[in-house]
Design a protein that fits this description.
Number of strands: 12
Structural class: alpha+beta
Strand content: 5-15%
Distance between the termini: 39 Å
Order of helices and strands: HHEEHEHHHHEHHHHHHHHEEEEHHEEEE
Helix content: 40-55%
Length: 413
Amino acid sequence: MSTPETGTAALDAAALARDFDLARAPAGFIDDPYPTYAALRAHDPVHAMPGGILLTRYEDAIALYRDARASSDKKIEFKPKLGDTPLYEHHTTSLVFNDPPLHTRVRRLIMGALNQKAIARMETDVVRLVDTLLERMAAVREMNFIDAFAAEIPIEVIGNLLDVPRSDRTPLRAWSVAILSGLEPTLSPEMLERGNRAVTEFLDFLKTLVAERRLKPGDFDSDVLTRLILGEKDGERLSEKELYHQCIFLLNAGHETTTNLIGSGMWLLLTHPEELARVRADVALVPSAIEEMLRYEGPIQLNNRRLSAAMELGGRTLAAGTSITIAIGAANRDPAQFPDPERFDVTRKPNRHLAFGQGDHACSGMNVARMEGRIAFSRLLARFPKIELAGAPERDRRIRFRGFRNLPVRVGT
């Protein structure tokens, strides 16, 4: 368990918690947000900021995730921030930022194509892809692990799910990063311009892809785009706008979570050699290691809700209309839920982390991400007896999403 703060350290932590604002995060927060999260949990776990409330305790996060008064609809919140733009249209139409009935309809369509049988069918292709990437890594020996491996896997998997022609997949990753950057607490004009351009270009691409798929539908059981176009047997259909934006959402959600999981997971193993040795000695630990990677360095650090009615959290009554940010990264290191939370432990059980959310909005692709991570790490460690850092890593400079831009790695046999 974490030791209690005393004296000057406690005063400093209390001041840090009192003054914290996500829109003006202190120097060093992106590199290591966890001391700030610890201060907030200890001194102000239901923290008021100019933009709303920040939750940092596990029990409060769980309570909010499971309460019907916590709305995911972001129209009110995003309008002043994004204006009448393509980014606003996308982020207020996609599955993740909607309540029923749209959320229910889209989630049912997507989950039908991401059931356990469907995921099992994907495994052969993922193994083949991973092995191809590993052979490329073996040929060059030193590389940016993110570009060479971590980001390649989800782009290919989502490309296959939507049956995007392989020759058309090159811009997908850049579009995803630009669009999701529009969710950061503060946005520069350049970020807005890149995000809006990415949405526009992606929509133009999808119009052609969808038109072709309408003429020649794919396999309803495995082609998510065909499933979204044709709808369920009861006749439910998405509008054209809804259809396009769910496709963009699938790419973004699938790309960001898995890229950051694999990239951060590799960094964690390399900076915790004793845990890397445990996984190498027992490949059966790979699944629990992945859960610990998700807890310790969650790919998505923040989530948001807006109260549709008054609610009590952490001893405070919050009014209807309150915007709430859930600090997933803070909740996942709460000592009240996770013994010795600052320890990276590949055997940790139980491990009820919140990396994929909870409740009705729990990530629909979580088991696809877990499958990709399991295959990636098991085959990577088997292929290379020697893996080491080859330089200083460079973190992605976003707050909501936690990962690396550059992770220099050297491999050998």
